[in-house]
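Incident log, structure service

09:12 report received: a user says their structure output differs between two submissions of the same chain.
09:20 pulled the input from the user's history:
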Amino acid sequence: MQKEKRMRKEQKALRISLVGVVFFVVLALGFAIFTKSDAILFDGIYSLISFATALLTMRVAKLAERPDDDQFHFGYTTLEPTLNLFKSLITIVVCVYAAVEATQRLLAGGTEAAYGWAVVYGCLATSGCFVVALLLRKYGRDCRSDLVNVESKAWFVDSLLSASVLLGFLFAWGLTKTEYAHWAPYVDPILLIGIILLALPIPGRIFLDSLREIIVMAPPESVVDEIGERLRPTLAVVPHELIEYRVNKRGRNTYLLVHVLVAADFKLQSIEALDDIRRESSRQMKAWNPEIVMDVLFVRDKSLIY
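09:34 re-ran on a clean worker, output below:
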């Protein structure tokens, strides 16, 4: 029941993102044509890419909930980091291309734009994107969804882009009222380059985090240490010399492979008794993080661990 509730929240969050993207694509492209601003056009293209990837995200979110089958023996959750890697890579490529274009326009003498209307766009887009980003961030925490969390970060990037557009065009509009009006055309390409430099670190981090999951690297050390602190008490009933665990994050799931090196005086009562220990350990860990999947192996030969 709890899983179904989380799935409904995730799908609702992704639908909110999709509707928001459609609205802001139309808003940005309309204002870009009217104001002749490259910065607003880039904001619209960024939103258009978000629309395309949002459709994929909704599909992957449904697939990730499927159980393992003959094709995917460990389930479909690995599709999540793969999609996030793909989305971040597209964003990085678009940002680099836009930066090159803006540099060329800057060297060519800048771009004239209707700064007053650009300020109106900046106000609408900044406030709207921040609201959607905060809403998705709340949904992402509630349903523990990496897909929604990445969508939230994408909206936050979009809000930074829009805020930068707003501040830049306020400055350019002010310049047109002074004797420095001839510098105003340079604001648009400079603004676009600044936006890109501000936005690039976020998809860059998403790219690296997703790559870490795809190539089966361990999560950050702080995460692994916290898992160990919570895991050891759940196996304290077993006399042991060592508990060795390996962690792999696969999308929304966190997989634990646990080896318990039992003490010499450990007496095996029955396989069923070991199953009870495994179930209780898993229950306690899932109470902390419902997305944990774990295998617990009991060994006496230390060489079997390594």
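09:41 both user submissions now match this output. Likely a transient worker issue. Closing.
09:42 reviewer note: The chain has a mean pLDDT of 83. Residues 221-304 form a domain with the Alpha-Beta Plaits fold (CATH 3.30.70.1350).
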